[in-house]
C-alpha cells in the first residue's frame, strides 16, 4: 500500500505542528504501508522549516519521507498567506504528473485545512488511479466566516465554498477529525461516506523532561505561594487567549499565575493586553512536543477555550485536548461545544466561552480542587483518551478507509 498525504503545513515531532500526517505515517509503516507526505517548505505553525529542501525530491523528516513544494514565507493572515496557498496548490498541479509516475500511490489524501488542495489531490489521484480521501480538520469557509467575520459573499469565501463542495463530491470518502461533520456534508446535498477519525495520541510514548528554565520558573512560583494555570498551544484568537488574559486580570491579587507555552500570530497583542490589564501571565515560548507533557504535569490546572459560534456544534479537534487529558491535571474547559472529549469524559471544570468572569470562577475552582477530586478527574481524562484516542487503533481505522475499494 502506497499513500500520498498532502498537507501544506505537515510537520513532525522535531519540526513542530501539524503532527497528524507524520504520526499516521509512522503507524502505517508498522502496518506495512509506505507513506510520502507532500508539504510546503514554509509553515507558520512549524518551529523548523525546510528552505533547504529541493522541491519534489525525497527528504527524510524524523524517519518519514517528505517531498516539499516551494512556498513563500509570510506573516499573519494577509495576502502572503493566501499566496502561499497558490504556491502549494499550483506547484502541486505542476508536479502531479511526475509524482504520479515516481510515487505510484494507491491512495491520495488531501489534508491542508484549507480546501483548495483538493484540486492538486484530484489530479494526482486521477493520474495514479488512486483512491481519493478528503480529510476535514476544520470546516472552511465556515471557519473564517465564523471566526474571522468574513462575508460568505466575499470572493475568497465563495471560492473556498466551491472547493469544499468539489472535495466532498469528488472524493471516495471523507475522513473527519471533527466528530459531527456528516450533517454539514448532507446539508450540501452530498452523499459521500463520512468517517469520523479523531486525532489520536500515543499514550505509551515516554515524554522528555521539561527544560530546566521551565522547571525553575514553576519552582519559583510555588516558592512564592502561587498556584499555576498552564496553557500549551497557539496564541490565536480562535483559542480565546484574550478571554484567558481578561479572566486572569479579574483574579487580581489572588495567588494564581498563568504560564503560557507556545507562540503565534497574536502573541504581541496578548502581551500588550497583559501590560495594560496587569494580569499575572508569563509567556514562556515554544517547547518541543516531547517536553510539553512533563511541563503541563507541573501545573495545578490547565486552560483551553474557544470563541462562541455555530462552528463548534460540529465538534472540536485540537490536539492539545489529548495532551491535556493525559497529564491527569484538571482542565478549565471554556470551549463552546458539547462535542468534546473534555465534555464526554467528565475530567474538566466547565466555563462559559467568551465569559472572562466565569472563566475566572472556573480557574479559581480548578486550582483549589481537593486532592481526591483532582485524582478522580485526572483518572477520568486518562481513561477516556486511552480508550477512545489510541493512535495505533485510529491509524488502523484510517488505513482501512484507504484500502476499502
Can you describe this structure?
- This protein has 405 residues and is of the alpha/beta class.
- The protein has helices at 20-30, 79-103, 117-128, 142-148, 155-170, 182-187, 212-223, 241-251, 267-277, 289-297, 320-327, 341-345, 356-367, 371-388, 391-403; strands at 2-6, 34-40, 58-61, 64-69, 107-110, 131-136, 173-176, 194-196, 227-232, 256-261, 281-285, 301-305, 331-334, 348-350.
- The chain has an 8-stranded mixed β-sheet, sandwiched between helices. A 6-stranded parallel β-sheet has the order 11-10-9-12-13-14, sandwiched between helices.
- Helix 10 (289-297) crosses helix 11 (320-327).
Indicate the topology.
Blueprint: E1 2-6, H1 20-30, E2 34-40, E3 58-61, E4 64-69, H2 79-103, E5 107-110, H3 117-128, E6 131-136, H4 142-148, H5 155-170, E7 173-176, H6 182-187, E8 194-196, H7 212-223, E9 227-232, H8 241-251, E10 256-261, H9 267-277, E11 281-285, H10 289-297, E12 301-305, H11 320-327, E13 331-334, H12 341-345, E14 348-350, H13 356-367, H14 371-388, H15 391-403
Parallel strand pairs: 1-2, 1-5, 2-4, 5-6, 6-7, 7-8, 9-10, 9-12, 10-11, 12-13, 13-14
Antiparallel strand pairs: 3-4
Helix pairs in contact: 1-15, 2-3, 3-5, 8-9, 8-13, 10-11, 11-14
Q: Could you say which structural class the secondary elements and strand pairing correspond to?
A: alpha/beta
Shape: globular
Within the largest sheet, what's the order of strands?
A: 3-4-2-1-5-6-7-8
In the residues, how many domains can be counted? 2
Rg of Cα set? 21 Å
Q: What's the overall average pLDDT, rounded?
A: 94
- The appropriate CATH architecture of the largest domain is 3-Layer(aba) Sandwich
What's the CATH H-level superfamily name of the largest domain? Glycogen Phosphorylase B
Quote the distance from N terminus to C terminus. 13 Å
Strand content bin: 15-25%
What's the story with the biggest beta sheet? 8 strands, mixed
Helix content: 40-55%
* Count of alpha/pi helices: 15
Low-confidence stretches: none
Amino acid at each position: 500500500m502506497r499513500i500520498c498525504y498532502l498537507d501544506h503545513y505537515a510537520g513532525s515531532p522535531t519540526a513542530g505542528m501539524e503532527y497528524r500526517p507524520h504520526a499516521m505515517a509512522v503507524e502505517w509503516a508498522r502496518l506495512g504501508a509506505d507513506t510520502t507526505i507532500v508539504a510546503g517548505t514554509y509553515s507558520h505553525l512549524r518551529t523548523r522549516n525546510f528552505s533547504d529542501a529541493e522541491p519534489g525530491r525525497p527528504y527524510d523528516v524524523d524517519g518519514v519521507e517528505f517531498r516539499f513544494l516551494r512556498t513563500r514565507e509570510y506573516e499573519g493572515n494577509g495576502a502572503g498567506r493566501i499566496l502561499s496557498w497558490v504556491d502549494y496548490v499550483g506547484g502541486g498541479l505542476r508536479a502531479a504528473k511526475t509524482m504520479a509516475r515516481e510515487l505510484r500511490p494507491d491512495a491520495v489524501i488531501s489534508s491542508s485545512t484549507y480546501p483548495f488542495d483538493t484540486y492538486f489531490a484530484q489530479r494526482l489521484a486521477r493520474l495514479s488511479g488512486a483512491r481519493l480521501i478528503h480529510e476535514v480538520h476544520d470546516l472552511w469557509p465556515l471557519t473564517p466566516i465564523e471566526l474571522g467575520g468574513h462575508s460568505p459573499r466575499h470572493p475568497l469565501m465563495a471560492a473556498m465554498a466551491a472547493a469544499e463542495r468539489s472535495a466532498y463530491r469528488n472524493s471516495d470518502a471523507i475522513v473527519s477529525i471533527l466528530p459531527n461533520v456528516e450533517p454539514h456534508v448532507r446539508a450540501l446535498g452530498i452523499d459521500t461516506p463520512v468517517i469520523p477519525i479523531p486525532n489520536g495520541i500515543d499514550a505509551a510514548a515516554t515524554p522528555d523532561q521539561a527544560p530546566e528554565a521551565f522547571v525553575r520558573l514553576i519552582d519559583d512560583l510555588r516558592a512564592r505561594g502561587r498556584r499555576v494555570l498552564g496553557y500549551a498551544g497557539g496564541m490565536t484568537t480562535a483559542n480565546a487567549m484574550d478571554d484567558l488574559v481578561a479572566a486572569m486580570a479579574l483574579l487580581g491579587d489572588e495567588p494564581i499565575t498563568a504560564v503560557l507555552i507556545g507562540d503565534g500570530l497574536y502573541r504581541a497583542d496578548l502581551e500588550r493586553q497583559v501590560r495594560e490589564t496587569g494580569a499575572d501571565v508569563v509567556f514562556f515560548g515554544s517547547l518541543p512536543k516531547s517536553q510539553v507533557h512533563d511541563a503541563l504535569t507541573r501545573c495545578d490546572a490547565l486552560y483551553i477555550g474557544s470563541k462562541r459560534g455555530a462552528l463548534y456544534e460540529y465538534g472540536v479537534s485540537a490536539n492539545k485536548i489529548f495532551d491535556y487529558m493525559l497529564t491527569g491535571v484538571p482542565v478549565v474547559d471554556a470551549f463552546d461545544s458539547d462535542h468534546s472529549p473534555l465534555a464526554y469524559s467528565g475530567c474538566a471544570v466547565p466555563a462559559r466561552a467568551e465569559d472572562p468572569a466565569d472563566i475566572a470562577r472556573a480557574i479559581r475552582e480548578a486550582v483549589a480542587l481537593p486532592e481526591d477530586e483532582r485524582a478522580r478527574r485526572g483518572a477520568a481524562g486518562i481513561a477516556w483518551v486511552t480508550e477512545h484516542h489510541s493512535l495505533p487503533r485510529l491509524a488502523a481505522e484510517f488505513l482501512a478507509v484507504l484500502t476499502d475499494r
